[in-house]
Amino acid sequence: MLNSPYVILKTNYAPFFLIALILMHLYINLFSKNNLAKEMDY
Fold first, then answer.
1. CA angle, 1 as apex, 12 and 3 as ends, to 5°?
2. What residues form the membrane-spanning segments (predicted)?
3. What are the angstrom distances between the C-alpha of 19 and each of 7, 8, 23?
4. How high is the pLDDT of residue 5?
5. Rounded to an integer, what distance in angstroms lies between the CA atom of residue 15 and that of residue 2?
């Protein structure tokens, strides 16, 4: 009985965590590309 609320929370919040991880991954990739572009300009 105590585990059921945790399972429901995990299933409900799993998509949000996945979206957050994907957004962070894309943001880090864009940030690294911008840094490489700045380094190449120099």
1. 45
2. 12-30
3. 19, 18, 6
4. 67
5. 22
CA distance 11 to 6: 9
Question: What digits encode the pLDDT tens for the residues 24-39?
Answer: 998 888 888 777 667 6
Residue positions counted in the chain: 42
Indicate the residue type of 41: D
d(CA 4, CA 24): 30
Token representation of residue 11: 């299933």
| Structure-token match 């059921």, residue found | 4
Query: What sign has the CA pseudo-torsion 22, 23, 24, 25?
Result: positive
